[in-house]
Specification:
The complex is a heterodimer of chains A (301) and B (287). Chain A contains eleven helices and two strands, in the order H-H-E-E-H-H-H-H-H-H-H-H-H. Chain A is mainly α. A two-stranded antiparallel ribbon of chain A has the order 1-2. In chain A, helix 2 (33-39) crosses helix 11 (263-300) and helix 4 (93-106) packs across helix 6 (153-177). Chain A is globular and about 70 Å long. Chain A starts with a helix and ends with a helix. With 287 residues, chain B is mainly α. Chain B has helices at 2-51, 54-58, 72-102, 106-121, 124-136, 144-169, 172-180, 185-213, 240-248, 253-286. Classes of the chains: A mainly alpha (301), B mainly alpha (287). At the A-B interface, helix 1, helix 3, helix 4, helix 5 and helix 6 of A face helix 1, helix 3, helix 4, helix 5 and helix 6 of B.
Amino acid sequence: MAGWLFFLAMDLACGLFLLVVGGIFLELLAGSWPSIRAFGLSFLWTSAWDPVAGKFGALPFIYGTLVSSLVAIALAAGVGLLAAIYLAEFAPGWLGAPLGLLIELLAAVPSVVYGLWGLFVLSPIVRSQIGPFLQATLGFLPLFSGPIYGVGMLTAILILVLMIVPTVVAVSRDVLLAVPDIQRESMLALGATRWEVTRRVVLPAARGGIFGACVLALGRAVGETIATTMVIGNRPVISASLFAPGYTLASVIANEFTEATTTVYLGALTELGLLLFVLSLIVNGLARVLLRALSGGLRQA
Amino acid sequence: MSGAVVHRARSAALWRLRSAAAPWLCACCAAGVAGALLLILGYVVREGLGAFSLSFLTELPHPVGVAGGGVGNGIVGSLIIVGLAALMAFPVGTLAGIFLASSGWETLVDLVRYLCDVLASIPSIAIGLFAYSLLVEPFGHFSGFSASFAFAVLMLPLIIRTSEAAMRGVSHEIREAAIALGAREHVATLRFVLPAAWPGVVTGLLLAVARVTGETAPLLFTAFGSQFWELNPANPMAELSLQIFTYAISPYRSWHAQAWAGALLLILSVFALSVLARLFLRRSARS
């Protein structure tokens, strides 16, 4: 009797879980229906965002989300991987372990704290120091042209980098430490330097896990709401300049959802949420395919 | 021929240089990452301590212009919202985790595992939209409970995966010995495997609580915030991280100070939870 109940409870829990995941998709789809019916697919590539006229297009938000998170992951992956290599391969034991633990703890710092710091400390620095410096040295590029407000795409990217770098470091370090020592030792015995061991043995063995760490961090950057909202400037424009304000899918929902009045407006915002959902599905699916290709290549090697 | 020798000597020098320089480059990156993060942490501690006081922890927010006031209602609101979320997510997540670890139904196990990854990757603001359309819109008003529901959904994948891993970590002999002695399948799982896996399960719960404690985005249109001592989760409730956000984007200096103090409190509680989780895990590794 008790056994029967236990199995029933387990099945119910699984059923409930499946119901929740399915429910999220269906609710988002149902909520965005007014907007889907009004704008169709053109919602994806028009850039009007005019609640008064009832015209909505998602392009500036898709652009803002993609640019901010892709640039952030490119920077964070490079720096974070090198830092993880130091902690796992070169740092002395008394330094590597506590530093690794510290960075792992810092990966759990809430995003609102990063947002707060970004708003009051980083964005003034961008306005008065980093921005003018970039403009003086690289100002001929359209990337660094135009007025510097402090809040804007550049500040958002920097905050995202700071937020996701601990994730990259912590996970990559775990992966590197999991590579068996016997592989390092045999290469060292053949006369390789420590760097060659890292480059030729440890990194190839760990590349799947490192890639996973980057995907995890990218997902965090794509979905990040609060910190980005506080520093990106919140204006639905597409600008070549990194100093200009931007907007992301997540931050426009955060800012405008409670103020949206008409059904179409609410629907458009919900559709942005649906896009965010689909975007993370695509990122995850691509990662799976790439990971399979990576580990397949490794097995052949 | 001498050209080839020179070339080889040059590439050897380059190789030696690279082997010597690469570790330093890595060290610089590690120092940069740790330094930048510690700088942020130090800044929050400095600014936060300046506005910290007992009344900050116990009092209601004061109107702008009236000195003092605190985030007492936000702290209580956080405890209620996160506590309710844990109450909802823990049984469902743990049972589903046990299912994944012990069921032979491979297709369903794979599907649940895949959907766990999917759910873990959905941005929290989209989960907030889900909670809004399910629990706010039909009732016509914001509520603490809808925030708890959103948090519970966010906690589920983490709890499921950690409890599955904890159950799988228990050696097969324990289950087999129990069954060999005549225990039924569910008795073996509940009375013998689960107690051995318990520290790992609790670690997962603690990590999940730590993860949602700092979460703000879904609260914007579920808990919504409140200026009062609101203990009934059927009504809009205050929450600490939401208060920090509201204070930070306000134009008032006194509120900014409170935001820093709140950030300090938030970091301390998240750190405490993470350290606690690690201690549990270490204990499970020892036993």
